[in-house]
Amino acid sequence: MSNFLAVATVTAALQRLLQQPVAVDVPGARVTAERPDSVSPASNEPTVNVYLYQVVADPAWRNQDLPTRRPDGSVVQQPRAALDLHYLISFHGKDSELEPQRLLGSTVRTLNARPLITRQLIDAVVAAAGAAQDPKYPWLVTTDLGDAAEVVRFCPLTLDLEELSKLWSVFLETPHALSTTWTASVVLLQQDEVVQPSLPVITPALSVTPLSGPRIDRVEVATDPGLPVTDDRTIRIGGSRLHADGVLVRVGGVELEPASATDTAVEVALSTAPAPLRAGALAVEVVHPWLVGTPPSRRGETASNAFAMPLHPRVTEVRLVAGAVEVDAAPPVGRRQQAALELLDPTTGAVERVLAAPDRPADAGTLTVPVAGAAGGTYAVVLRVDGVASPVVRDAAGTITFPLVTLP
After folding, report:
1. How far apart are the first and last CA of the chain?
2. Residues 252 and 246 sit within 8 Å (Cβ to Cβ)
3. Are 242 and 365 within one domain?
């Protein structure tokens, strides 16, 4: 890896690499590193100008250093940037003596024969920077490109006439000169950070997890599949590959420990939930934790398909208070849940009236719904939360006996 001087070092090394051969091939030729519009064509001096016009991220190295940090912010490895440097090399001199073309031939021959920036070349750049008299780029004394694990290589970059004309159009009022483009890659820049070493492995642990995860086919009340699921019942989950060490059941995001588990059935009591469940459509999953080490610790999981289960609200008590119906509900109705009361004919079960519950500032176990304008009589009460209705109790004749409310 290299410090921030690596890019400038590559340019200085390219300039130094070309200086001796072009001076031999075209006497008096020099190599500069200036903007093309700064090179004066009127002097007709044989000149090779090296200009870095574009820097792009190297695609092969772009993701090699990810991630560089752990979740706690500590450094896993030194963050680094991998760059490809694009150079425009232009040639100037007397066209009558074909000097630009001779300089082009000398440059291409040199870069083709010596495409690497060797450590000897970088050492020469550093020595020139630290010379006692007339130092060349003195700030490059502290460059460490020579210690980089990757050697920078030059490769020709082919641009068609349109691309080359667009490149030269960037330099306004600058006449086109014979030129070629080359790429220097890869240049690795690294930020020095204190790396926290990983903890050693004291005791290796091996865990085996099957490729095929659990699958849920049905969810029903354990005692009677025909009953609606409420928060005070035990449900049976049917499917395949359900049993595993430490198996859990996730209902609406809440994890529960099952009362029993086999490969084809898992039973869990919803009343054991550490927090009240929400009435409505809930996702049920069977979870196989990945337990590793001694004592076992959870390092991941394999979850089944999410099975939609309607959790019906329960009306535990209903009463008439000051022209409003009060309903005690279990589980509590969430602040953002949609709730409504349906008043039914107890004999036929037909819906006589629907009363929307007012908004609640917080979760509520008791709902108060005004009934102004409703006709007097005895009604069965159904609480509907997020589209799921509460069950009612019927006698042998099918008449609803609970919950009931009598309106004056």
Report:
1. 87
2. no
3. no
Per residue in 153-185, pLDDT (tens digit) is 999 999 998 998 899 888 887 888 999 999 999
- Collapsing DSSP states into helix, strand and coil, what is residue 37? helix
Distances (CA, A) of 19 to 25, 51, 102, 169, 208: 10, 15, 14, 27, 64
Same domain (yes/no): 128, 91: yes
Closest CA to 230 of 151, 331, 327, 139: 331
| Residues in CB range of 282: below 8 A, 6 or more apart | 251, 252, 308, 309, 310, 311
- Number of structural domains (the chain) is 3
Q: Positive or negative, the Cα torsion across 371, 375, 379, 382?
A: negative
Q: Which of 372, 380, 320, 305 is nearest to 348 (CA)?
A: 380
| pLDDT per position as a tens digit, 92-140 | 999 999 999 999 999 999 999 999 999 999 999 999 998 988 899 999 9
Burial class (CB in 10 A: 0-12, 13-18, 19+), 247: middle
Query: Which residues are 116's β-sheet partners?
Result: 153
**Omega before 151 cis (within 30°)?**
no
Residues 270 and 383 in one domain: no
* pTM attached to this predicted model: 0.56
- The verdict on 254 and 343 lying in the same domain is no
Domain that holds residue 94: 6-190
If asked whether residues 137 and 40 sit together in one domain, one would say yes
Domain end, chosen from 279, 311, 343, is at: 311
